Amino acid sequence: MERPEHIQNILRTLPDNPGVYQYYDSEGIIIYVGKAKNLKKRVLSYFNKDQHDNGKTLILVKKITDIKYIIVDTELDALLLENNLIKKYQPRYNVLLKDDKTYPWICIKNERFPRVFTTRNVIRDGSTYYGPYASGRLMHTLLDLIKFLFPLRNCNFLLTEHNIRAQKFKVCLEYHIGNCKGPCVGKEEEEAYNEKITQIKEILKGNSNTVNRYLKVQLQTHVDNMEFEKAQIIKEKIDLLETYQSKSTVVNPAITNVDVFSIVTDDKCGYVNFLRIINGAIIQAHTIELKKKLEENPEELITLAIVELRERFSSNAREIIVPFEIELQLPNVTFTVPQRGDKKQLLELSERNVEYFRREKIKQESLVDPERHTKRILEQMKKDLHLTEEPRHIECFDNSNFQGAYPVAAMTVFKDTKPSKKDYRHFNIKTVEGPDDFASMEEIIYRRYKRVQEENLEMPQLIVIDGGKGQLSSALTSLEKLGLRGKVGIIGIAKKLEEIYFPGDSIPMYLDKRSETLKIIQQIRDEAHRFGITHHRSKRDKGTLKTELTEIRGISDTTAKKLLSHFKSVKNVKEAPETELVEVIGKSKGKMVFDFYHTPENRS
Questions:
Q1: What is the pTM of this model?
Q2: Domain-located, residue 375
Q3: What span, in angstroms and rounded, lies between the C-alpha atoms of 566 and 581?
Q4: Does residue 249 have a pLDDT over 50?
């Protein structure tokens, strides 16, 4: 690849230090920001390849007209700086963090007799902030718990010693209903008030056990002093705290100060779930969406999310649970990939949450923009099944027979991922004797696409064969005869393990059971099976009529159906008295049926 002299000079002088690099286009706009343990090696890797696997990366490199970099001390510093620069400049080719909400925090104000309240604005005035809380419900539950356990003031008076001694304030309604102890008029000492603030901070950190022990000491003190009414109030607070803690606990309470991250990805996005665990309880949970720009892999996405979310939620956890090994190194932090036990349960919980989030996003997308939703699924199917075009028109084939008798086949059609029932077709097998699924499949594929060619009908982008290698091979034989092999996508799906077979490949492919591609294939296959079975039963029933009742001379299909409708079975027709037969189908036909079943040669 030809490189401008200016770029070549920069590449020659790149340092080996950790740092952040920025790529600029011809208009001086930052189009990409990246981090590196070694700036020289990382940046050169973009320019040392004549062909990049990723087409978007190739386009990016062609647009680079200038490179700037910032040297930092550690890889962590590089991660944090990269994260901040991406959020500031939002370069075109960087992962887009789709999460621009301003989440609320719980603030403990830096003042005498601190207030505890919610805010969306973090002000650096020495106050302590906890959060942010993605779940408003969790935040308000915490505040209600705190309000019940520890009565605090909610006024914004300036409670200096001078103002209180000067009696500048009067108690309000909150004091009279028991929500405040009246520090504004000197009815509560600052030391006692600050002790409550200390306990509140422990709860907000997730350390409710500390508060529980503190309350139990108070309870015992009141009991010892025979202050039973006060003891009962404390007991109610302990019960409430334990109830809150039990609802939050998900695994072993011995697991303390741990972060959990999990990820799912598709063609365009990655979704990362974060759980923060203190004493076995989830105190924070959040999921973010990361929009891919250069087909970033799961490790790149989860690394970006770990740095972003730990910074946002002020996490200092020394252990991070992740679903796979990653190269990220953070000071005094251990990465764990659990295989079993409580930590594995936590990871699975996170994975369920992130998968649910992804599904909800897809559902919302399908409601708001159905065409976009369909387009995304078709693009995924094209990629998963190695097709040359999106499978907007799919046809699926299935055979049915009963011990070799009444062989039939069915074709179902999906257009834009939805059933097109008006295009469904039944086939009666004409040239095959006995139970030969391979030969039957060969016949119906040939008949179907011979007609498509002769009548100039729409050709599908994908043919699905219900069966494994044998059925697929038979279908390919017919396509070969028609000159269509290689011109239309075709796969086989074997029911037992949902194996996907491709032409010329004896080794099946296994799609993720949650894959949307597999779900569409299963739906059209199941439709073909249902549609084929319905036709097969109908034909088999007609065949039964033919051999049992319509063998009687003078009895038509219509008369036979009338008899079965009334008597429910051929057995009941045989056993019916002549008078009842006459009532149903008339005198002469009733006598014919009765005589047929009651003459010695017919009974034998």
A1: 0.49
A2: no
A3: 10
A4: no
